[in-house]
Write a structure and sequence with these properties.
Blueprint: H1 11-24, H2 28-44, H3 50-60
Helix pairs in contact: 1-2, 2-3
Amino acid sequence: MSASTSIRINQELYQQAKQDALQEHRSIAGQIEFWARVGRAALDNPDLPVSFIAESLASLSEPREQSMPFVPRSAHQ
């Protein structure tokens, strides 16, 4: 179980997080944490597009039991 910490953030940022959290099915805290992870990864990998980083991080949080294994086309022959 992770510990929580209260922080103060700009009301406009909070409202943006609230709106995006609803669309992305995250909590507001989860949305802000996602933005922080994307920002950190973008700073650590300036050569990668931010959209690629965001999509990669989002895919890592998806449940694996619903995923389908990759099967190359050549295996279908």
